[in-house]
Amino acid sequence: MKSFKNTCLILVLVIIQVYLVKAQDAPQYKYIISSESKLWFEGTSTLHGYKCVAKEITGFFIMKEMISDSTPIEFNNAAVAGIVQIPVLSIESGKGKMDKKMRKLLKADDHPEIIFELTSLELTASPEAGKDQVQLKTMGNVKVAGVEKTIALEVIGNLEANGTIRFTGSKKLLMTDFNIKPPTMFFGRLKTGNEITVYFEIALIPSIQISLN
Questions:
Q1: CA-based torsion, 144, 62, 23, 122: positive or negative
Q2: CB 3.0-4.6 Å disulfide test: which of 30, 40, 140, 183 passes with 118?
Q3: Could you tell me if 74 and 65 are in contact, meaning their C-beta atoms sit under 8 angstroms apart?
Q4: In angstroms, rounded to a whole number, what is the distance separating the alpha carbons of residues 172 and 32?
Q5: Is residue 1 part of a domain?
Q6: Domain tally, the chain
Q7: How much is the pTM?
Q8: pLDDT, position 200
Q9: Domain holding 158: CATH number?
Q10: Residues 20-31: pLDDT tens digits?
Q11: Distance (Å, whole) CA 45 – CA 194
Q12: Who contacts 204 (Cβ-Cβ below 8 Å, separation ≥6)?
């Protein structure tokens, strides 16, 4: 009886090992963030609204397979990992004083980048007839001014004819969630609202196939 149990245990271990080897052998594909990607955020104040634009966005996504068309099967759980990096100094409003204050609030000297790390990407709705896009839900961790939060994003995914994958969406965030006090200017006459809305259009282009061996 003991010998039979040992044989079963060995068999299970062999099966697990074979599975892990096959998983490691599976190729993965790296997509890099294109320079045509866009990200900006908008907010309000007691005097007027404002808009800040990121002039530089870098990063990459690792996919389980090369996306060849926008079918639900290929988009669902396709991403293994992803990272989006935005240098704080690249964010501009077009107003020098406001940019200087924003960089101080974002602690640019100690935390020079805003970073988003993807943890999951799932299909939430199949493509509508005649449309080459899908609705996706992503989860990830965003780090701003040294404070990290987990957020969910509703995203539209679209595959373009040249192989580019484009993710678009928006997300409302509160400054105070990242320990940032909404700034004031002109001796308190201008007060900004706590809530901002982040808009993004991330374009991914195929880069290389990754071998895990």
A1: positive
A2: 140
A3: yes
A4: 25
A5: no
A6: 1
A7: 0.80
A8: 97
A9: 2.40.128.110
A10: 334 445 568 889
A11: 9
A12: 31, 32, 33, 34, 61, 164, 165, 166, 167
| 8 or 201, greater pLDDT | 201
Q: What angle do CA 125, 128, 133 make, to 5 degrees?
A: 70
- Which of residues 95 and 195 earns the better pLDDT score? 195
pLDDT of residue 44: 92
Helix, coil or strand: residue 180? coil
Q: What is the model's pLDDT at position 170?
A: 97
First and final CA of the chain: distance in angstroms?
39
The beta strands (E) that lie in the chain are given as 28-33, 38-45, 50-54, 58-63, 79-87, 91-92, 113-125, 133-144, 147-159, 165-174, 184-185, 190-210
Residue 13 domain-assigned (yes or no):
no
Query: What is the domain range of residue 162?
Result: 28-210
Which position has the token pair 């639900």? 72
188: left (phi over 0), alpha (psi -120 to 50) or beta: left
Q: What is the reported pLDDT for 155?
A: 93
How many Cβ atoms from other residues are within 10 Å of residue 43's Cβ? 19
DSSP class of residue 14? H
Q: Is 37 helix (H, G, I), strand (E, B) or coil?
A: coil
